[in-house]
Amino acid sequence: MISLEKFKELVLEGIPTEIPAKKAYDKNINHAPIRKDILTKEEKQLAIKNALRYFPKHQHAELAKDFADELKTYGRIYMYRYRPDYEIKARNINEFPHQSKQAAAIMLMIFNNLDNAVAQHPHELITYGGNGAVFQNWAQFRLTLKYLAEMTDEQTLVMYSGHPMGLYPSHKDAPRVVVTNGMVIPNYSKPDDWERFNALGVSQYGQMTAGSYMYIGPQGIVHGTTITVLNACRKIAKNANEGTEGKLFVTSGLGGMSGAQPKAGNIAGVVSITAEINPKAAYKRHEQGWVDEVIEDTDKAIDTALEWKAKKQPHSIAYLGNIVDLWERMVERDIKVDIGSDQTSLHNPWAGGYYPVGLSYEEANEMMAEKPELFKEKVHQSLVRQIAAINKLSDNGMYFFDYGNAFLLESSRAGADVMKADGLTFKYPSYVQDIMGPMCFDYGFGPFRWVCTSNKPEDLDKTDKIAEKVLLKLAEEAPEEITQQMKDNIRWIQQAKENKLVVGSQARILYADALGRIKIAEAFNEAIKSGEITAPVVLGRDHHDVSGTDSPFRETSNIYDGSQFTADMAIHNVIGDSFRGATWVSIHNGGGVGWGEVINGGFGMLLDGSDDADRRLKMMLHWDVNNGISRRSWARNEGAIFAIKRAMEENPNLKVTLPELVDDNIVKGLF
Q1: Which residue in 630, 443, 454, 634 sits closest to 538, CA to CA?
Q2: How far apart are CA 82 and CA 144, in angstroms?
Q3: Model-level pTM?
Q4: What is the CATH number of domain 219-429?
Q5: What architecture is the 444-665 domain classified under in CATH?
Q6: How confident is the model at residue 256 (pLDDT cuts 50, 70, 90)?
Q7: Is the pLDDT reported for residue 146 higher than 90?
Q8: 191 falls in which pLDDT band (50, 70, 90)?
Q9: Exposed, middle or buried by CB within 10 Å (0-12, 13-18, 19+), for 283?
């Protein structure tokens, strides 16, 4: 057990002056798959030279051999021997050595992202999604912490894809950290480009909240998944009084964010089966209480689900096996599935994001590293079979939606029967296109979140009560258009504690609009000032939000004016947040649907009870939401037009260009 003083000493040390002893490869940890051998001989030599830049010359000969072994064995240079001996987990903010409280908060968030109980592949510095990295190697981790511990509120730390470029003079209202991840020239943004650049140690895939230090465990997506499942049930309901009881939801993926699915299913009141091929991931979620039971036999999993369906009681099953086997067996048995989806990481199909049918977990891992082209063929064949089974179940009444992980996109590339007759659009909607976009994002509702830096559960309880009180008051005057959203979110926050959502830091997620976020943040800041909450609170959000992400197959899939392939919104958002008071900001290429398919950004903001924090939160949160509503309004989205008009009425300084709606008959026949 390392003492607190020793811990602080090790953080301040940065990269050790002496080379640490090699560490044993811990087989009890869920490790990243071996990456493909993609570099030429000359590029491999360059990768070693790049890695050695962090170390003095007299250590190069020894470390060069070590790093070369890692590159040969794992396809990456992680610098395992530099992984610290202390436990990496969220701590009380005051346990981190610091000159700046804002910097200490960022250290807390980084530690949470790499907690063994939170991260998908913690020893490879990957938080979720198979490749969503916080850093590329452990030297970057150590050097970043040293900079954060030493910096003041008159400096800004600049992060290039996990690499701490350095501390630069700035001012107290500037961000303490500015992060970029994977920002490559657009013509070099294909999956193999990521493999090459990441192996060279010059870029990384930050996913969304992995590389921006804002991941809060699977809770981060539970709320959104709950809302999605609830509204999917409402879409297929025969009448307004029909509930979720007895409905069967079938999906796949329990690794990172997808681990939220069974918990969300229980909260929504449905019976769910979630397929997962990785035993460590499935049993980890069961141990954490996020899934009720793990079943390894296909028919038993189906039979158990049908028993709970007949009882009309919520229950979640992790099926330890391949999702294609499950879908095909359901077709053979003519099972009535109410709702279907998929959340395997198909943004990363060739490096552990998807495991094809017919191969064991171990066989697939071996093939993807040693025979990547054959593995790609197997993935394509598997997707064709998966879509064929889904089509048959959908013909029998199942409502299927893409959960924004590039499932339909990759299936189309595999040649699966997933396109409509026009050959341009998918047979099935994205969940954002059908549910989250028109019902939440257009009205400004998105995944607002906060973390109590005291790391005390009682502080989180206080924030829950404060947020509930704020929402109940706002609901009294809320317009009819957002009544259902308010009801769902009040119910969520009232049940949050009993649903046992916390994994890692004392954090909470809550879908709220701009007014809700501002009022909740104001109340938190006042409670910190009075001492009711014992330490500062970090505010943030998922990048998967109203304004933070331009992604044509997910976040902006309900944009129909042709601009869904543009990224002005996400870029403007991070720039606007940075000069309106964010504590840190980030902008990423990739996340959710894949490298080269999306631009997304996020922020973190520390509330410390000060007047400065009150000023910043009002400015930044207002922009952070209304930027996206403005863009959605200009795309002629009805809900967004309503929401931005309401925002302009509330704040006379807001003046947004509104669209004039065009009668279709005016343009028909012109060409």
Answers
A1: 454
A2: 13
A3: 0.91
A4: 3.40.50.10730
A5: 3-Layer(aba) Sandwich (3.40)
A6: low
A7: yes
A8: confident
A9: middle
